[in-house]
From TrEMBL:
It comes from Echeneis naucrates (Live sharksucker). It is found in: Cell junction, Gap junction; Cell membrane. The chain crosses the membrane at residues 20-41, 78-100, 150-171, 202-221. This is Gap junction protein. Its main location: other. Keywords: Cell junction, Cell membrane, Disulfide bond, Gap junction, Membrane, Transmembrane, Transmembrane helix.
Length: 299
């Protein structure tokens, strides 16, 4: 298990910057693959070649028959599988560390410029502010180039899982038989070869196959979850943008009401209803005679 310490520490660091489904995938990788492979499977396959016997004494026949039956050891095959499916996650972790390091350098540069008070305005004005890699809670923001790296990480993990499952099927199948026949040279004729503990080894093969299928399913679920989440966020953003645009157009369409009184500057005065000249008024108004307290008609 000492050989897995470095890989375990790196994957543990990547787990802090993964989604919920990604954390479950890494847990399955730790417990049901690395732990089982390091503690139990290596002991079961410890006598793989020494327990392989053939009913012949022809020199070299047993070795070539073993090579035909097991082109690659199951243990080494599973180790390669773990390394390949973990590599995209390690690349994603390297991208995170690179972005965090660059952000720390930018912050340090801003502090130095603020202390020296040299070209601070030019620095902050010409260079647009980028969104921080981590939020207030210390979680990595999956956006931009980092989001693309994470998506490619899931895609390549899925492809590697499928490739190794198919390769295992064509190399050995999913079951070990107690006896295999071999007619390779230098065997004089058809010989029978036997392996040790075929049932126990078959159980481990099926177990590792099930774990690989679970990991593959988790990758597909994570792709769906990530795509659904980002699409939902995009729709919400577009709806909010559309609502803001509609509100903006509505505000521009409704003009404020300003009454046209003469005490508002810039507005023309309202014309008087009657002329101010008394001569004109005398011509326009009817003449009414009052005599003896009574009204007479119009003149």
């Amino acid at each position: 298990m000492g050989d897995w310490n470095l890989l375990g520490k790196l994957l543990e660091s990547a787990q802090e910057h993964s989604t919920v489904v990604g954390k479950v995938w890494l847990t399955v990788l730790f417990i049901f693959r690395i732990l089982v492979l390091g503690t139990a499977a290596e002991k079961v396959w410890g006598d793989e070649q020494s327990g392989f016997t053939c009913d012949t004494k022809q020199p070299g026949c047993q070795n070539v028959c073993y090579d035909k039956t097991f082109p690659i050891s199951h243990i080494r095959f599973w180790v390669m599988q773990i390394i390949f499916v973990s590599t995209p996650t390690l690349i994603y972790l390297g991208h995170i560390l690179h972005l965090v390091r660059m952000e720390e350098k930018e912050k340090q540069k801003e502090k130095d410029l603020a202390i020296l008070n040299e070209k601070q305005q030019q620095f902050t004005g010409n260079k647009s502010k980028k969104a921080p890699v981590k939020d207030n809670q210390g979680h990595v923001r999956l956006q931009g180039a980092l989001l693309r790296t994470y998506v490619f990480n899931i895609i390549f993990k899925t492809l590697f899982e499928v490739a190794f499952i198919v390769a295992q099927y064509f190399l050995y199948g999913f079951e070990l038989k107690p006896m295999y026949t071999c007619d390779r040279w230098p065997c004089p004729n058809m010989v029978n070869c036997y392996i040790s503990r075929p049932t126990e080894k078959t159980v481990f093969i099926i177990f590792m196959l099930v774990v690989a299928c679970i990991s593959l399913l988790l990758n597909l679920v994570e792709m769906y979850h990530l795509g659904f989440t980002k699409c939902h966020q995009g729709l919400r953003y577009r709806r909010s943008q559309a609502a803001n645009e509609a509100q903006k157009h509505l505000n521009e369409a409704v003009m404020p009401f300003v009454p046209s009184y003469n005490y508002f500057a810039g507005h023309p005065t309202v014309p008087e209803p009657f002329p101010a000249d008394p001569n004109v008024l005398s011509c326009l108004l009817p003449q009414i005679h009052i005599s003896d307290g009574s009204l007479s008609g119009f003149k």
